Amino acid sequence: MASAQVLRAEVPYGRSRFDFLMEEEGKEFFLEVKSVTLFGNRAALFPDAVTERGRHHILKLAELGDEAIKQGLPRPVVLFLIHSSRVDRFLPDYHTDLEFSRAFLEVRDRVRIIPVSVGWTRTLELTEKVEELPVPWEFLSREVSDSGAYLVLMKVEHEELFDVGRLGPVAFPAGWYIYVGSAMKNLTARINRHLRKRKKFHWHIDYLRNQAAKVSVLPIRSSKRAECSVARALSDLLAPHAAGFGSSDCDCATHLFFSPEKPTNSRAFHDFLERFRMPLLDG
Ligand SMILES: [Zn+2]
User: Fold this and answer.
1) Are 260 and 26 a contacting pair, CB within 8 Å?
2) What is the mean predicted confidence (pLDDT) over 248-277?
3) How far is ligand 1, taken at its centre, from the CA of residue 72, in Å?
4) Distance from the CA of 238 to the center of ligand 1, in angstroms?
5) If 0-12 CB within 10 Å is exposed, 13-18 middle and 19+ buried, where does residue 125 land?
6) Ligand 1: distance of its center to the CA of 181 in Å?
7) Which of 75, 147, 208, 224 has its CA 20 to 30 A from that of 193?
């Protein structure tokens, strides 16, 4: 790409529009630039929210890539411009946007994916150092799937006491609760199930979920069952609550944890989440 030049910017193509039309050795190709500002556990991640547009873009580029390969022309490029030098790998955030991540994997032979990190100084100047980062393709092929663990975050506004199935009556002081569960198939459907209120209760979590305000779910996708190690790690940060809650089938004391403060406000919580979401690859 070193000798490539920009011919035009904001180039319409069908119903899409690409950032740049490039030229290298007399041959044209499209270049799309994505800005990366999300980082976790030394990994640079994209996107930071579900991007249907981003998915559409790379699939469209892959169609062009197909044509380019047939004609012996350069493949289109997606340049991920990473605004940090303290990262050592780039990957799609499959926890946040599974469909984009699946497309990212699917197009990799037809689109040149180039993640480049740039550094910023304290005075907001670009540093000299520009580095191409590796993409852990093997790891992604294994881990980008609709399975894994999840955290259900719930807020109880006022102290409550109610029956939780066979556990009987349980007191819930006002505050924040996190439930750890897993679904090794159809994780997205499971998450959506927890986000809806239900009339029939099946799991312990259903009883609490129905009483709670502000329910949200954070997936921790993985190919291996991690629910109990996630629960163990969380017990170092938050208070275990209601013995046996969600842990009828394992050795954990509980899969429910309590915090008087909103747990997602704490640095320690984010460190915990990043550790599970973006495991380091060495070893
Ligand atoms: Zn467990």
Assistant:
1) no
2) 95
3) 54
4) 15
5) exposed
6) 9
7) 224
